[in-house]
Amino acid sequence: MKRHLLSAADLSRADAELILSTAAELRELADRPIKKLPALRGRTVVNLFFEDSTRTRISFEAAAKRLSADVINFAAKGSSLSKGESLKDTALTLEAMGADAVVVRHGASGAPHRLAHSGWVRSSVVNGGDGTHEHPTQALLDAFTMSRHLGQGQARSLDGRRIVIVGDVLHSRVARSNALLLHTLGAEVTLVAPPTLLPVGVGTWPVEVSYDLDAALPKADAVMMLRVQRERMHGGFFPTAREYSRRYGLDGKRMATLQDHTIVMHPGPMVRGMEITADVADSDRSVIVEQVTNGVAVRMAVLYLLLGGSTPAVGGEE
């Protein structure tokens, strides 16, 4: 693996499969009474979050602590950042603290790349979500979840599996990272969204595009619903919430058209009743809660591999 994880495009198939296989080993910890390993004892991981986040920050914190790393949570609100401190000065502070890895969540696309390639820090940088650009560890945990349910052969390959991603692709860093990673892993990805919620240049992505959800669903092996990100919208992207749900929401009637093995996913947080109804979110097909559990294992694998653990990831527990 490279020194940083900034984009799903940075991962070769071998890199991605190494992360997923390492995560599979670490995933077994979730079912053990003692969930901690000494693999990263003495290392320091900083969660540098310029945007609010619950799921991602806690997931990275749990991942680092289960590997026995020290964790520093650095939130923009209430810190020097809210007083006007620059990204450079913040980075120099982290360097002085001896951070080995920095997980960055930022509202501006490209901020983690800036930090990684600036020369300000010697630590590994992990993109925890930047603007509407990418969220590579979310894509990895999604692929890991799919491989556990849909994977074929000993390597749990996703070759030829059909993945449908539905909703606000325009503002979704999850959609972009998933499109890139799933293509790398051999899956066939279809994006379904209204034309107003597709980004410029989507034709260059390794995906098919459709505006007809009902036509795409029966062929899908996995359906991923995306939240409509109203906080990033400044204008009318669709007539009404009711109209959006009617055309692009997943309800019980649409779920009945899925194949027997098809799973339903969502990166969270969900807006129940908008892009997905409660009965679908809570159904046996839904792996949404499992995605959260798998996220800790995948982020453990990423931190372990980036920080070059010299001992086996799974071995002597504390």
Topology:
Elements: H1 13-27, E1 44-49, H2 55-66, E2 70-75, H3 87-97, E3 101-106, H4 111-117, E4 124-130, H5 136-150, E5 162-166, H6 173-184, E6 188-192, E7 208-210, H7 213-216, E8 222-225, H8 241-248, H9 252-255, E9 263-265, H10 278-281, H11 288-306
Parallel strand pairs: 1-2, 1-3, 3-4, 5-6, 5-8, 6-7, 8-9
Helix pairs in contact: 1-5, 1-11, 2-11, 5-6, 5-11
Your description of this structure?
Pfam families: OTCace, OTCace_N. Keywords: Pyrimidine biosynthesis, Transferase. GO terms for molecular function: amino acid binding; aspartate carbamoyltransferase activity. This is Aspartate carbamoyltransferase. It catalyses: carbamoyl phosphate + L-aspartate = N-carbamoyl-L-aspartate + phosphate + H(+). Helices cover 35% and strands 14% of the residues. With 318 residues, the protein is of the alpha/beta class. The mean pLDDT is 90. The longest helix has 19 residues. It has eleven helices and nine strands. The protein folds into two domains: 143 residues, 3-Layer(aba) Sandwich (Rossmann fold), CATH 3.40.50.1370; 154 residues, Aspartate/ornithine carbamoyltransferase (Rossmann fold, 3-Layer(aba) Sandwich), CATH 3.40.50. It starts with 12 loop residues before the first helix and ends in a 12-residue tail after the last helix. It has a five-stranded parallel sheet with strand order 7-6-5-8-9, covered by helices on one side. It is globular and about 55 Å long. α6 links the parallel β5 and β6.
